[in-house]
Amino acid sequence: MSKIVECIPNFSEGQNQATIDGLVATAKSVPGVTLLDYSSDASHNRSVFTLVGDEVAIQEVAFRLVKYASEHIDMTKHHGEHPRMGATDVLPFVPIKDISTEECVDISKKVAERINKELQIPIFLYEASATCPERTNLAKVRKGQFEGMPEKLLEENWAPDFGDRKIHPTAGVTAVGARMPLVAFNVNLDTDNLEIASKIAKIIRGSGGGYKYCKAIGVMLEERHIAQVSMNMVNFEKCSLYRTFETIKFEARRYGVNIISSEIIGLAPAKALIDVAEYYLQVEDFDYSKQVLENHLLG
Questions:
Q1: What region holds the Formiminotransferase C-terminal subdomain domain (predicted)?
Q2: Number of other CB atoms surrounding residue 202 within 10 Å
């Protein structure tokens, strides 16, 4: 395939293995699409899939996944640490090869329209697909979550981009859009005090006066009895992972807390990780395009 589009649907299910297996099977059901990765988290009660395909096949698999999720995930019974408003919570399309962001915006709008028409799930367009500045930021779109969406949809400025002003009774609302690659990056702390993680998240996220391209919340990992700073790095080239990592380490010390570990959810661009290695190794005059072997092998 010449044009390659990435799609990273986030589903509000991280506990029911049968439903997750069904989503995996659906993700593999369309020729021309490859499921690169998927991960599920029970505390977040969320699964993140990473698929790539041509511009036609990726639209079909995205619709099938949203349909399957709407049939097997009941948001009236959903509980988890991660903010959410729909069975398929968010459905982003990312340009990877020989395709523009504008083309991905067109793809997102076609898929959004089909989802609403055939499944009656209301859609908000976000990021590059947003129809107004207030809808660019996913956090603002999702504010209120599933439980607050019926009232939110009746507010003057929050009519869905596709659909009526009422949620799907069990599948909720879905955000669909186009964006550049982001890195889902989490840092685990050696404390079970969620308030500490939340305070640190507020300091580092852009909306709290921190890093413009960092979105962060504090969450509790119940099965491990530890608090986590959960982040979406929406532009790793303008805000590197090491910068937020070091800031979290610095801020945690004031509470007598240390970092246990960090994790990356799903796939990450190689450069995001190499930037971290370059920083911690203090490599001088490193040239990513010339000095990474795989860049020469893969083109």
A1: 181-296
A2: 16
- Please confirm, yes or no, whether 82 is among the known catalytic residues: yes
User: pTM of the predicted model, to two decimals?
Assistant: 0.82
Number of other residues whose CB lies within 10 A of the CB of residue 85 = 26
- Residue 112: closest CA among 46, 50, 160, 48: 160
What span, in angstroms and rounded, lies between the C-alpha atoms of 58 and 55?
6
Task: For each of the domains in the chain, give its residue range(s) and CATH number, in order of start.
Answer: 4-178 (3.30.990.10), 183-296 (3.30.70.670)
Marked catalytic residue, from 44, 72, 78, 82: 82
For residues 2 and 103, the answer to whether their CB atoms sit within 8 Å is no
Could you tell me the strand order of the sheet in which 214-221 lies? 214-221, 226-233, 183-189, 259-265
Cα–Cα distance for residue pair 34/54, rounded to 1 Å = 10
Q: How many residues are given for the chain?
A: 299
Please identify every stretch of the chain with a pLDDT value under 70, giving residue numbers as ranges.
1, 298-299
pLDDT digits (tens, 9 = 90+) for 238-280: 999 999 999 999 999 999 999 999 999 888 888 999 999 999 9
Tokens 């990356």 correspond to: 264
**pLDDT tens by residue, 179-212:** 988 899 999 999 999 999 999 999 999 988 999 9
Can you tell me which residue has the tokens 């990726």? 58
- Assign 3-state DSSP to the chain and report helix, strand, coil percentages, each to 5: 40, 25, 35
Backbone φ, ψ for residue 148 (5° rounding): -95, -5
